[in-house]
Design a protein that fits this description.
Layout: H1 2-12, H2 21-36, H3 43-50, H4 54-60, H5 64-77, H6 79-87, H7 96-110, H8 112-124, H9 126-153, H10 163-184, H11 198-211
């Protein structure tokens, strides 16, 4: 037993330049869950993708459900530091909304599996996923909502916008667009179309047009 534990410790501490084993497990689980779904992915397939033994994976994540929760939480953990940084800049004249929107889009575009997993989880396990996202996002939703209300009071933003509902719609628009962006590329007859090009600009334009009292 001691020898087996020593093996697990060595294997789980391994870092081959591509992140710690725990980070690699989360990355491969994100990919496989988004491609095959939660039910269609086994812990063994994730361990094989990482290149470790299944007991080493269980050393970090004792069950597939526990791993799923950590994968989803890892998607929103980034924003614990990012949103306060964007929304409380030293320069109060900067366009914080556009900065938030751009950061949100880039986060999902950097790894399309992030958006695809959220869509798949909302379709496959809507109640559980909604509860988890609500738990994780509610503090930031209130933070952005308060920022939008301040803009409404100053006359910058339209007063008929419902801040929290607006935030939800922006999230749905960004995640949905990024998740299926490749599938819709054939509908756009231009060689300059790319997820990071015209699509991102159009998303920002739509948000600005629907929110600002006067076009910036």
């Amino acid at each position: 037993m001691q020898a087996g534990r020593e093996f697990l410790m060595k294997e789980t501490d391994l870092d081959n330049g591509h992140g710690t084993v725990k980070e690699r497990i989360l990355k491969e689980a994100l990919y496989l869950f988004s491609e095959r779904g939660f039910e269609g992915t086994s812990l063994q397939s994730i361990a094989d993708a990482v290149g470790i033994q299944k007991p080493s994976l269980i050393y970090h994540f004792p069950s597939k459900e526990d791993l799923r929760r950590h994968v989803l939480e890892s998607l929103v953990a980034y924003w614990k530091n990012e949103l306060p940084r964007i929304l409380t800049p030293a320069d109060s004249s900067s366009d914080r909304l556009v900065s938030t929107m751009t950061s949100l889009i880039n986060f999902f575009v950097e790894d399309l599996n992030r958006a695809r997993l959220v869509v798949r989880e909302l379709l496959d396990r809507p109640e559980e996923t909604f509860a988890l996202l609500s738990e994780q996002f509610s503090p930031w939703t209130r933070l952005i909502g308060d920022y939008l209300r301040m803009g409404q009071q100053s006359g910058l933003y339209r007063k008929d916008v419902a801040p929290e509902l607006f935030i939800v719609q922006v999230l749905v628009m960004v995640i949905g667009t990024v998740a299926i962006g490749g599938a819709t590329s054939g509908l756009v007859s231009t060689e300059s179309y790319t997820p990071r090009g015209l699509l991102i600009k159009e998303l920002v334009r739509i948000v600005q047009a629907s929110l600002y009292s006067e076009q910036p």
